[in-house]
């Protein structure tokens, strides 16, 4: 499992190959170190629009069907995604069709036409995507949460941008952005699965990606975090449920405490036997969905619990979540819980890594975002070393009024009562 090979070409392009025994699948993933945090207000949403446009046609494959059909014909899974710090394109196929996956993904990455007619059409598609997320309170409350934490800076804007910013993006903006960001030193190509010879795979990948350009990349602005007291953002909507996110600012990817933070999030609300699930759904019957998760980026991080509850019971639910946070501060977690969650973490990882796309993401994202790669065994070692004291210190550090934040969507009548609950924390 721990065997992988990484090479860096003269132009700075990094290629990683992670061979997997006993699988007939292979994934080709291209990751670019750019996303919404690299944008200005004027072109907010450009990373995401560009991700869409790369599937609209190249010189060799003039339209979107020419890209999709060959992969559909072999039952391939292919897609792309845009985050705040990265953009990714991948295809996963039966190993006998691996050359096709490499060919298509390198072609869209290197030779997209960015046809003006397609740009116009795709802006409409993206706006429908923005509308879809906005109409879904469970998704939209997450946008409110990042807005509350980071405000009017790239980290606080929606990844998809706004309708106005998307409509305002010019073809020249897209070309300039792509030329700056999609370059050799800012790109990682990760191949995982039943590829056979590592050397052959590297040479083949080199051949497909050799034309990638070398250029300096635009650096993103630093994320600014300022807070002195609890934060609250509330959007009034006549929904059948009130959705909320309640959590605390925490640590970034380069902070050693991130591992203990992940374990803490699992203990609090990351599994069906977790505390939040057992109390707030199981005992109190307040919600259908509830989960706690840690989000850990290169420059910021947080731990947050999300749930959807009956409109009349929002205050009760907020109090119940805060009570669990307080309990964690006062008493930490038990040795039994810590043992369980470590095995849970390692077991989940083993299951995920049966699939080549999860492996490609695991290796590729570390290389791209952290400039280093920890093999799964090394991650297990780190997880094994997390102590009760580590978790206890984190609880005391993050669960404080000046790090606490709450985002709500729903027909909330009394904002003042919610403020009161928060201030009591």
Identify the CATH homologous superfamily of the largest domain: Metalloenzyme, LuxS/M16 peptidase-like
Averaged pLDDT, please? Answer: 96
What is the approximate shape? globular
List segments where confidence is low: pLDDT < 50 over at least 5 consecutive residues. none
Determine the fraction of residues in helical runs and give it as a percent range.
Answer: 40-55%
Name of the CATH architecture of the largest domain: 2-Layer Sandwich
How far apart lie the N and C ends?
Answer: 45 Å
Name of the CATH first level of the largest domain: Alpha Beta
- Give the total of beta strands: 11
Report the major sheet. 6 strands, mixed
- Strands ordered across the widest β-sheet: 1-2-6-3-5-4
The CATH topology annotation of the largest domain reads as Cytochrome Bc1 Complex, Chain A, domain 1
Overall tally of structural domains:
2
Percent strand equals: 15-25%
Rg over CA atoms: 23 Å
Overall SS class: alpha+beta
User: How many distinct helices?
Assistant: 16
Order of H and E elements? EEEHHEEHHHHHEHEEHHEEHHHHHEH
Brief overview:
This protein has 425 residues and is an alpha+beta fold. It folds into 2 domains: 5-209, Cytochrome Bc1 Complex, Chain A, domain 1; 231-423, Metalloenzyme, LuxS/M16 peptidase-like (Cytochrome Bc1 Complex, Chain A, domain 1), CATH 3.30.830.
What does this structure look like?
The protein has helices spanning 46-53, 64-73, 98-111, 116-135, 137-150, 163-168, 171-181, 198-209, 258-269, 275-283, 314-331, 335-352, 356-370, 376-385, 388-398, 415-423, and strands spanning 5-8, 14-19, 25-32, 77-82, 87-94, 187-193, 231-236, 241-249, 287-296, 301-310, 404-410. It is of the alpha+beta class and 425 residues long. It folds into two domains: 5-209, Cytochrome Bc1 Complex, Chain A, domain 1; 231-423, Metalloenzyme, LuxS/M16 peptidase-like (Cytochrome Bc1 Complex, Chain A, domain 1), CATH 3.30.830.10. Strands 1-2-6-3-5-4 form a six-stranded mixed sheet, with helices on both faces. It has a five-stranded mixed sheet with strand order 7-11-8-10-9, sandwiched between helices. A hairpin with a 5-residue loop joins strand 1 (5-8) and strand 2 (14-19). Helix 12 (335-352) packs antiparallel against helix 14.
């Amino acid at each position: 499992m721990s065997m992988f090979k990484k090479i860096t070409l003269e132009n700075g392009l990094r290629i990683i190959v992670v061979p997997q025994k006993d699988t007939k699948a292979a994934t080709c993933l291209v990751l670019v170190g750019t996303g919404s945090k690299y944008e200005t207000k004027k072109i907010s949403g450009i990373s995401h629009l560009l991700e869409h446009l790369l599937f609209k046609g190249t010189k060799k494959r003039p339209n979107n069907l020419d890209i999709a059909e060959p992969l559909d014909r072999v039952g391939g899974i292919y897609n792309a995604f845009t985050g705040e710090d990265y953009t990714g394109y991948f295809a996963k196929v039966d190993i006998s069709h691996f050359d096709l996956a490499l060919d298509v993904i390198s072609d869209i990455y290197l030779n997209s036409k960015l046809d003006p007619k397609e740009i116009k059409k795709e802006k409409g598609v993206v706006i429908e995507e923005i509308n879809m997320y906005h109409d879904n309170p469970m998704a939209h409350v997450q946008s409110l949460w990042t807005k509350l934490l980071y405000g009017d800076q790239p980290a606080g804007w929606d990844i998809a941008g706004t309708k106005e910013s998307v409509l305002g993006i010019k073809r020249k903006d897209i070309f300039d952005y792509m030329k700056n960001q999609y370059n050799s030193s800012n790109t990682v190509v990760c191949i995982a699965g039943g590829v056979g010879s590592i050397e052959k795979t590297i040479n083949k990948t080199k051949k497909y990606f050799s034309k990638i350009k070398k250029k300096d990349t635009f650096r993103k602005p630093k994320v600014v975090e300022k807070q002195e007291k609890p934060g609250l953002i509330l959007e009034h909507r006549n929904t059948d449920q009130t959705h909320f996110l309640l959590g605390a600012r925490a640590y970034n990817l380069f902070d050693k405490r991130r591992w203990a933070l992940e374990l803490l999030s699992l203990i609090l609300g990351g599994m069906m036997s977790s505390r939040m699930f057992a109390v707030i759904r199981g005992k109190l019957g307040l919600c259908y969905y509830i989960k706690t998760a840690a989000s850990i980026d290169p420059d910021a991080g947080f731990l947050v619990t999300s749930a959807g509850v009956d409109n009349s019971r929002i205050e009760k639910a907020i109090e119940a979540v805060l009570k669990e946070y307080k309990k964690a501060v006062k008493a930490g977690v038990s040795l039994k819980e810590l043992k369980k969650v470590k095995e849970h973490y390692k077991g989940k990882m083993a299951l995920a890594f049966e699939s080549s796309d999860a492996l490609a993401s695991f290796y590729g994202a570390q290389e791209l975002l952290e400039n280093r790669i920890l093999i799964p065994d090394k991650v297990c070692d780190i997880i094994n070393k997390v102590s009760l004291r580590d978790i206890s210190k984190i609880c005391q550090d993050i669960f404080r009024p000046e790090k606490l934040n709450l985002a709500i969507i729903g027909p909330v009548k009394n904002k003042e009562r919610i403020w009161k609950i928060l201030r009591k924390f």
